[in-house]
Design a protein that fits this description.
CATH architecture of the largest domain: 3-Layer(aba) Sandwich
CATH superfamily of the largest domain: Type I PLP-dependent aspartate aminotransferase-like (Major domain)
Number of strands: 17
Order of helices and strands: HEEEHHHEHEHHEHEEEHEEEHHEEHEEEH
Radius of gyration: 21 Å
Structural class: alpha/beta
Number of domains: 2
Distance between the termini: 39 Å
Number of helices: 13
Strand content: 15-25%
Bound molecules: pyridoxal-5'-phosphate
Length: 388
């Protein structure tokens, strides 16, 4: 059987795959089984921060694999400790819990908010408020956090104690906070799966202010927006706020599984011995990869991300067949005249891999994609959108 046949015979049908097998790559170029080249503007959904098989990243991984590939969390390992230090130094947060995915990093955030609220405000303070159109993961609790009904339908009953409010509506949130006790508020500064929709500065600052006023745990889901994606190390840094909890994953280790929940001053000591854990969390190879990734996301790289972002906004704004451009940094959504799925399929034929998010074409290129490669891909997307 071919890989495609094996896969559809033996792998659960949870992913509607494109008819494309990727066998190798280098940076922002990837190759299928026939050797055809594609410019990758998806980065494994914002995961391969420095592209595929990047040499510096590879070396960091190989060096650590040659020392120790896994140890239980009963012992100390250097990559885990050093990565926690680096994350805290770069964000002002105080402690880190490591896991393996975005959903788990949010799960930890929710547990922290629940425990803090119960201990500080009593057992009836447990509700976690998230936004409509949000996405926070696929475990039952992070599904409950996700503010999109269609993800909920088949999996009732979900974890209780979640409420969803309209993004951008400060009055609705304030009214809810008068009615019920809120333990935590969890937001994405740019809703990724929801269609690459950035929140306004005013709204994010109002959420932060309300959390401060009512001692609500202010949590930002940086699973997709984090690690340089939006032109700052974390997206909240574009908004002039300081969260109590930051959850991240995807691009953190540049292509290996790693989740991190960053805990600020207020909640740094909420989790005690035995309150939470993960066998693979803080894996030394993943942490060594993340140390390499994070140490390269410096001011120069972030300035380049913002420059490439401006180039994409300028290229697509007012282009024929493109109705609007949204996003922040190298997280771009295109509302196209043609259905997004059609645009993505046509681009693939022409050697450019794009994603969709809701009704948008979504672009998440590697942070270090060469400008010429990005320009070549953007011209192809433009041509596809302009075709009648
Ligand atoms: C992808 C994503 C998640 C889930 O991450 P997994 O690693 O798939 O569990 C959670 N939140 C946001 C904002 C995401 O984009």
């Amino acid at each position: 059987m071919s890989v495609k046949e094996l896969d559809s015979t033996y792998v659960a049908h949870t992913y509607k795959r494109f008819p494309l097998e990727i066998v190798s790559g280098k940076g922002s170029l990837v190759y299928d089984e026939t050797g055809k080249e594609y410019i990758d503007l998806g980065s494994g959904i914002a995961v391969t921060s420095f592209g595929v098989a990047d040499e510096i990243w590879q070396q960091a991984v190989i060096d650590q694999i040659g020392k120790v590939q896994h140890m239980s969390n009963l012992y100390y390992t250097a990559p885990c400790a050093k990565l926690a230090e680096m994350l805290c130094q770069k964000t002002g947060m105080k402690k880190v819990f490591f896991s393996n995915s975005g959903a788990e990093s949010n799960e930890c955030a929710i547990k922290v908010a629940r425990k803090y609220a119960a201990e500080t405000h009593g057992p009836d303070c447990f509700t976690i408020v998230t936004l409509k159109n949000s996405f926070h993961g696929r475990t039952l609790t992070t599904l409950s956090a996700t503010g999109q009904e269609h993800y909920h339908e088949l999996f009732q009953p979900l974890t209780p104690g979640f409420a969803h409010v309209t993004a951008g509506d400060v009055d609705e949130l304030k009214a809810l906070s008068e009615k019920i006790k809120i333990a935590g508020i969890l937001i994405e500064c740019v809703q990724g799966e929801g269609g690459v929709v950035p929140l306004s500065r005013e709204y994010v600052q109002a959420v932060a202010a309300l959390c401060k006023e009512k001692d609500i745990v202010f949590m930002v889901d940086e699973v997709q927006t984090g690690n340089g994606r939006t032109g700052q190390l974390y997206a909240y840094m574009n908004y002039g706020v300081q969260p109590d909890v930051v959850s991240t994953a995807k691009g953190l280790a540049g292509g290996l599984p790693l989740g991190a929940t960053l805990l600020g001053e207020k909640v740094q000591n909420v989790l005690g011995y035995g309150d939470h854990g993960s066998t693979f969390g803080g894996n030394p190879v993943s942490c060594a990869a993340a140390l390499s990734v994070l140490s390269r996301i410096d001011d120069t790289l972030l300035a380049e991300v913002r420059e490439k972002s401006a180039y994409l906004f300028n290229t697509f704004r007012d282009a024929p067949g493109i109705e609007s451009v949204s996003g922040l940094g190298l997280m771009i959504g295109l509302k196209t005249k043609k259905p997004a799925g059609e645009v993505v399929a046509a681009c693939m034929k022409k050697g450019v891999l794009c994603l969709t998010a809701k009704d948008k074409v979504r672009l998440l290129p590697a942070l270090n994609i060469p400008m010429e490669t990005l320009q070549k891909a953007a011209e192809i997307i433009k041509a596809v959108c302009a075709e009648e």
